[in-house]
Design a protein that fits this description.
It is built from no helices and nine strands. The chain is an all-beta fold. The chain is elongated, with a radius of gyration of 14 Å.
């Protein structure tokens, strides 16, 4: 039986010239839902293009490239971004360059 998860848990990571990561371990019979994501850099990214990736194991659920300053995503309540049942969840936002602070925020249920 699936364990009901009813609250959205905000998650945050911030790095200077490093990859920001939010990770949730796999739990049997549990499905992670991503309700919203906000990413930003403290200045325009200099290290190529900013990439946001949401994955479960080796399966990419969402990849957005070319983020140079900030991006917000909201997923409708009837169509959240969903990891497979029993699967882990990983959200990463790549480094923006020397001295640039990257910030990753997500609402995970």
């Amino acid at each position: 039986m699936k364990r009901p998860v009813t609250t959205v848990e905000p998650k945050h990571d911030e790095q200077t010239n490093g990859t920001c990561t939010i990770a949730k371990s796999a739990v049997t019979d549990e499905t992670y839902l991503v309700r919203w994501i906000h990413v930003s850099y403290s200045a325009t990214a200099t290290a190529g293009t900013g990439t946001l990736t949401v994955s479960s194991g080796a399966t990419a659920l969402l990849i957005i490239r070319g983020i140079t300053l900030n991006k917000s995503l909201e997923f409708p309540s009837d169509a959240p971004l969903k990891a497979p049942e029993g699967g882990a969840l990983s959200i990463t936002f790549e480094a923006g360059g020397a001295g640039i602070v990257g910030s990753l925020n997500a609402g995970v249920q």
